[in-house]
Amino acid sequence: MALTREQLAQRVAQEFRDGYYVNLGIGIPTLAANYIPDGMEVMLQSENGLLGMGQFPLEEEVDPDLINAGKQTVTMVTGASLFCSAESFAMIRGGHVDLTVLGAFEVDCMGNIASYMIPGKLVKGMGGAMDLVAGAERIIVTMTHASKSGQSKLLSECTLPLTGKGCIKRVLTDLALLDIDNGQFILRERAPGVTVEEIMALTEGALVVEGEIPEMTF
Amino acid sequence: MSGLDKTVSSYEEALAGLDDNMTIIAGGFGLCGIPENLIKEIKRRGTKGLTIASNNAGVDGAGLGLLLEDKQIKKMIASYVGENALFEQQLLSGELEVELTPQGTLAEKMRAGGAGIPAFYTATGYGTPVGEGKEVRSFNGRHYILEEALRGDFAIAKAWKADRYGNLMFRKTARNFNPLAITAGKIAVVEVEEIVEVGQLDPDEIHLPGIYVNRLIQGTFEKRIEQRTVRDA
């Protein structure tokens, strides 16, 4: 079975480590904040100028001056800090953020990512994604493995305009967890009930399968 | 306005000298921390052919979206322009030009513009459409592209509190691009929620010194929320 949104978020959260500063993109990455293990301290960075993003506010706590990068109202955790956009991206570009999680349309086995532009469709913009993929040491891309019609999104070469070049090393899809190294996808884990053969059939880029591939556990 | 006192008495005076075809650098992220009354004054003035650098272009009927209604904007320099039907329409008809710029690069372009740095190298955008036609240099085995600084004929921004000298404090994430925009404007116009007497702000807690501010005005703000998200008690 392909992972649900919640399972994807749970699997992302397994990548968190105590003391990490993490930037979570809009959508499934944001959901991962709900699964930070108990007793672990993780500080969430929101690129509009907040380190220490908390949960959504109660109705009476809503503050128009306090939003996240998705323009949603949020709260701050104890120990949060606030800063301008240049400072925020200094953190990101300067490699101070430990982990970035974001979505994509396509990735390829050279570590390229396409996530902001589909030619012929209206382009809304890259927001902070290009800076995030250029700056972070650890990046996890969360995406569906293939389109609804079964077209692989894990390619030998991205077909869409790139968001970043050679910067992706780990991809979590609804079917599998894969690393990217040396021009190949390396299968690390399978979604529960998904076979290696199914994953191979839906991965267009070079794929290495070594030994027994474990199922993800939640 | 006299000496170091930056206060002006009307929005008309705040934007005196703003002419057609000028470049404006604007603060704000989405509708958070936008100079909403200065934008309304630009609409009232009917200034046309504007180039505006701002992270976003407002929404239909609010923020910079107001300036699209009378086609006052010629070009937007922004990182994300979704959520705006009028914007899409004018973009598709060719009435509006957009230069999509990565968010961190946009912030740094403003910072550099205000700091007298004409250009800088960044890895952001290398090998993507953003890097096309730009100078590439390699440092320590990594590729970087050359991005030029931004300066505006005017900057429009919103802060929380100011003293009469234009020393500014921002509030929460309404800070965003505001201090950067202010430094990059030849004439920096700032509207605030409260102006206090000189000496009432703790010098250690001033986020942006008044040296960057040319005109200061106190306004009242709607602070519209784009995505009101709440949790249940």
What features would you describe in this structure?
The complex is a heterodimer of chains A (218) and B (233). Chain A has 218 residues and is α/β, with parallel strands linked by helices. Chain A contains five helices and 13 strands. Chain A has helices at 5-13, 28-31, 85-93, 129-135, 196-201, and strands at residues 21-24, 43-46, 50-53, 76-82, 99-103, 106-108, 113-114, 138-143, 154-155, 170-173, 176-181, 184-190, 207-208. In chain A, strands 4-3-2-1-5-8-10-11-12-13 form a ten-stranded mixed sheet, sandwiched between helices. A three-stranded mixed sheet of chain A has the order 7-6-9, with no helix packed on it. The longest helix of chain A has 9 residues, at 5-13. The model of chain A has no long low-confidence stretch (mean pLDDT 96). By secondary structure, chain B is an alpha/beta fold. In chain B, the strands form two sheets. In chain B, strands 1, 2, 3, 4, 8, 9, 10 and 11 form an eight-stranded mixed sheet that branches. Chain B is globular, with a radius of gyration of 18 Å. The longest helix of chain B is centred in the middle third of the chain and has 13 residues, at 103-115. Chains A and B meet through helix 3 and helix 4 of A and helix 4, helix 5 and helix 6 of B.
